[in-house]
Write a structure and sequence with these properties.
The chain has 445 residues and is of the alpha+beta class. Helices cover 32% and strands 25% of the residues.
Length: 445
């Protein structure tokens, strides 16, 4: 039996931050990671750039977290965006602020963020054991509730990807090992990007320990559309458009910003944000569509005047050429096909009916949703551990003494833009601080 002050299960964003802080406070910390390297998901987040946080005010941030962001009030009061930026600066990660309040590392390198966090942990004496899958957390009671942790069982050799990256303090042991510690921090992530290791192990362990885990669905994920036009629009990226999620013609939610057409349907920041509601409703077999306003900056009357002017001033030019002043080339071909207007029809022959068809296309282009992409393409998980079952201030389980839970495994998720990583970092810091304080209280200063 190997004995430590704290065992951390999982070495993603939450696990690495908690490990560094606890070791910095003098705790003997071991991190058990089933993958062959740490930070696999963190190294690809933000398309490899790592959108670490957002400069949104705390209250606005909390209001954008589902299902109940108020749970984060205590964690954010201890460790929010500025504290994270200060930590990163201290361990060698310079940051920069971009549009939308998004913070990135100055060198745009997510792998470098992982590297610097691991180096910080190494300097503070954290021990890493990779290719170790925890298969059982043993407690003092057969009927779990009210019990405390006695040991952790892990099996070596279960990594599912990549080559082993050896930390200078990494220890390699036999096929099966047992660990004991006063405190265990579960940071195994949710179900998104399972190839990086977040495949539901943590949920399984929590259920075994008597916790409740809600139904998990992909979130911040591309949506699939029922339309033959998607192939002709693949690769088209649009900015400053309005997309509305509609259920049987009624708007459920709406977002303004950037939208992408991909091979299977729709993506981009505003679609990913809408996807949380869309996926939940599609899972309930609701009939949904996405209504796109390509010209949200022009109200109906202004757009109508613009169309009249363009077709009048360019009367001899074909419709397809005139429309290029209003939309990208790929969209022009879809517009003329959808409206039935011949692309070579001169502007002088465009009727009021034609203009109305074009107007509708630009302001209310509707695409039926047929589904959503799988967890392998989802940025975050909708669902997880019911946060009512853990202490809001300490992140300690209310069912198993000494068990703490942080990060994506919790039923908390936010929009794109650095929100979800901040949740992971803040909950990890709150849990780490609680463990540090409790150990200090037991052993003295």
């Amino acid at each position: 039996m190997e004995n430590y002050d704290a065992v951390i299960i999982g070495s993603g964003a939450s696990g690495l931050l908690a490990a560094g802080y606890m070791a910095e406070a003098g705790l003997q910390v071991i991190v058990l990671e089933k993958m062959s390297q740490s930070g696999r998901k963190l190294s690809i987040t933000g398309k490899g750039r790592c959108n670490i946080t957002n400069d949104t005010e705390t209250q606005d941030f909390i209001e954008r977290v589902n299902p109940d962001g108020r749970f984060l009030l205590s964690s954010f009061s201890q460790f929010y965006n500025q504290e994270l930026i200060d930590l990163f600066e201290r361990i060698g990660i310079k940051t920069k602020l971009e549009r939308g309040g998004r913070y990135f590392p100055a060198n745009d390198s997510a792998p470098d963020v992982v590297k610097k966090m691991i180096e910080w942990c190494d300097r503070k004496g954290v021990i890493f054991k990779h290719d170790f899958r925890v298969n059982r957390i043993i407690t003092t009671r057969k009927f779990i509730e009210g019990g405390s942790i006695t040991s952790i069982k892990a099996v070596q050799g279960t990594s599912i990807a990549g080559q082993r990256i050896k930390h200078k303090r990494e220890v390699i042991v036999g096929e099966s090992s047992s660990f004991s510690a006063s405190f265990v921090l579960l940071c195994t992530g949710g179900l998104s990007y399972p190839a990086t290791g977040s495949d539901g192990d943590g949920h399984r362990m929590l259920k075994q320990l008597g916790h409740s885990v809600s139904k998990c669905l992909p979130s911040l994920v591309p949506l699939e559309i029922d339309s033959r036009i998607v192939s002709s629009l693949t690769g088209l990226e649009l900015r400053n458009v309005q997309a509305s999620l509609q259920e049987r013609g009624k708007t459920v939610s709406s977002e303004f910003g950037e939208l992408h057409f991909i091979k299977t349907g729709l993506s981009g920041p505003i679609i990913l944000t809408l996807s949380r509601i869309a996926v939940s409703l599609l899972h309930q077999q609701k009939s949904l569509s996405i209504l796109i306003d390509f010209k949200p900056g022009l109200d109906g009357e202004k757009l109508n005047r613009r169309l009249i002017r363009d077709f009048t001033d360019r009367a001899k030019e074909p419709v397809s050429s005139i429309l290029r002043g209003l939309m990208p080339k790929k969209l022009v071909s879809v517009c003329v096909a959808s409206t039935g207007i011949h692309p070579n029809k001169p502007g002088s022959e465009v009727s009021a009916k034609d203009r109305k068809e074009i107007h509708t296309f630009l302001k209310a282009f509707s695409l039926k949703l047929t589904g959503y992409r799988p967890f392998s393409e989802a940025i975050i998980t909708n669902g997880g551990l019911d946060v009512k079952e853990i202490n809001q201030k300490t992140l300690e389980s209310k069912k198993v003494a000494g068990l703490y839970i942080a990060g994506e495994i919790l039923d908390l998720d936010g929009p794109t833009g650095g929100f979800n990583l901040q949740i992971a970092f803040s909950t990890a810091k709150a849990a780490a601080q609680a463990i540090i304080s409790k150990r200090s209280g037991v052993q003295g200063p």
